[in-house]
Amino acid sequence: MLLLRKYVEAYTDQYKKASEDVQAYVESPINAYLLVKRLTTDLQVVQDLIITNTESIADIDKLKPGLKFPSDEDLNGAAMALARLQDTYKLDTSSLANGEINGVKCAAELTAADCFELGRQSYTNADHYHAQLWMMEADERLKREVNQTVERSEILEYLAFSTYKLGDVGLALDLTNKILELIPTHERALINKVYYEDEIATRNAAQPKGEDGSILTSVQNKTEDMLFYEALCRGEIKPSDEILAQLKCRYTDNGNPFLKIAPFKVEEAYLDPKILIFHDVMADNEIATIKALARPHFKRARVKRYTTDALNISNYRISKSAWLKEIDHKHVADVVQRVEDMTGLSMETAENLQVVNYGIGGHFWPHYDFATKGDPKAFNRFERKRIATVLFYMSDVAQGGATVFPYLNIAVWPKKGTAAFWYNLHSSGEGDLHTAHAACPVLTGSKWGIYDTK
Predict the structure, then answer these.
(1) What is the rounded distance in angstroms from the CA atom of residue 66 to the CA atom of residue 78?
(2) Which residues contact 338 (CB under 8 A, 6 or more apart)?
(3) Domains of the chain listed by start with CATH number
(4) In a 3-state reduction of DSSP, which class is residue 384?
């Protein structure tokens, strides 16, 4: 009953904090992970604890059909998002566990069990680097817990094997011996102990090491392109002062008589290729309407592609998307007309508006908006060429979420009501390889955008 009361206290405390400001609460990646965990693995534990009370189980079962509970896949996605953010933005494991992101307290502290589950999810994905980080944090927090939330033997078992997979067989053996000190008859630990001892005896490390014998981390296994992209996302790389000095802001009417009265405010983000930022081009009521129209039609885009990073396979794009037509609402038609006014391009052959929501950890790796001819750096393919792209930002993002152009060293940061515009093709019709761009992971907040391509 004591453990059950602890869960009741945890659920009650989380409910109270979330009720103060639901939107702000779930925009923290730590809170988002905790909420999903409470409604998946934790809820299963609660049900197991009260399994003898058929009346309570029946009450829970009655609730489930009317509510949409997260799945184990959602839990894995939330854990992977935290790991992705941890790498991209160089976030300290202990600070995250304390509920802090870049020095800002945005969530409650994680328990040893919460850290353990993050490590276990990483382990399930064969991401032994993050599994090791979170199991070590779980072990440290367990030592400080009066009412321990997870068995230390479980932490050590995952930690030992991940440490072995990262190449440190000696430490894996030491951790396994600690398991046997706690549980001398632990079956898997007894088997692994013999295996690790044989490995050390034959000096046959299972994983590659660096030239100095050090363990290869996930950062060392990343390509230079990926490390550069992440540095752009953190705002560490900018164009040279010479390039920045040439950029200007101006009003433009594009020869449109109506715009003589209300010209567009344009900021140059880059000159060649030309990337422009249009300010104050969407009103709040338009944004609210378009979000509401898109929500019922959202489809999750979780695309996996083979990569050269430590996991060999990665989520190339994580977002939710919906397509809207001009006939769906006047505001949709207004936005399409506005794109024509902004760019001077006819919208007769343009694609429908693509509304995209990038939640916690949502991102889109470097790609082009045009079909390529065997270029090795192209990540995606299209059936036809897209002349130009307009990207409207429908929300501010507290941290992260920039649109970056790796070949140009620039980052466009989301600002509600603005829009970025660039040509994907040269005047010859050939694709401009300098327009490769990416959506950085959302660190805190939620990023809404509209893509309009022609």
Answers:
(1) 23
(2) 281
(3) 2-150 (1.25.40), 165-221 (no CATH), 225-453 (2.60.120.620)
(4) coil
